Amino acid sequence: MANNNLWTDSYWLLLMQACKKKPDDIKSPWSKTMVDLAIELHIHPKTLFEKMEQLLDHKTASLQKIWDTYADNTRRLNKDAKRVREMKGFGDADSFFMGVESIDSFETFYLPVADDTKLTPASLTILIDLYFMLTPNTMVEETPEVADVARMLMLTTKEVVEVLAIFQTFDPILKRKALPTSALVEAARRTWDEYANDTQNMNDKKERALAYYHK
Questions:
Q1: Where do the structural domains in the chain lie, given as residue ranges?
Q2: DSSP conformational letter for 3
Q3: Residue 170 belongs to what H/E stretch?
Q4: What tens digit of pLDDT does each residue of 14-34 get?
Q5: Does residue 129 contact residue 206 with C-beta atoms inside 8 Å?
Q6: Distance between CA atoms of 3 and 68, rounded to whole angstroms?
Q7: Gap between the Cα atoms of 136 and 149, Å rounded
Q8: Is 58 exposed, middle or buried (0-12, 13-18, 19+ CB in 10 A)?
Q9: Does the predicted TM-score (pTM) go above 0.90?
Q10: CB contact at 8 A, 68 and 35
């Protein structure tokens, strides 16, 4: 589970830095900025979002001081935020997360499903949604929707089509021959099993994934 007890007051600077990223305002808890910071700190994005709201309100003396010191001094903010990241153990997964029993589900949603791919459960969620919008003969590189999704996920159209082809092997209507097992095929199978008969769940997770990849 994500451990909210890992929060320390020095992380206010990292939140301030996240807040100052364009657009300069509070960030959605599922935006790339917030999710990446949440994974870095091993603290749930919703918790960071609540902290960011507190920071923007800066109603306490300590938060007002942080605001006065850094809000209009990006150079100092970046310098001191870098120092926080250089603290002993910070960024070292083995030592920093010692005692944390497991990676939280919100983290695995954004982490690659295998060492040799950029695909994540989040991107597979977007791809299975695309699968259900297309027909088999449109699951090709030339299809505009394929190109659009590839661009958003920073994949090639070939990679997108390959995943769509994997999904076809799970579709009972198409009766495609199964592919040799691999980490990607197994991840795609889990994605199919989770969403194929649960449109609401797929739509909810898709919105979260789109918030992360939205530019």
A1: 4-100, 109-213
A2: -
A3: helix 157-170
A4: 999 999 988 878 899 999 999
A5: yes
A6: 29
A7: 16
A8: middle
A9: no
A10: no
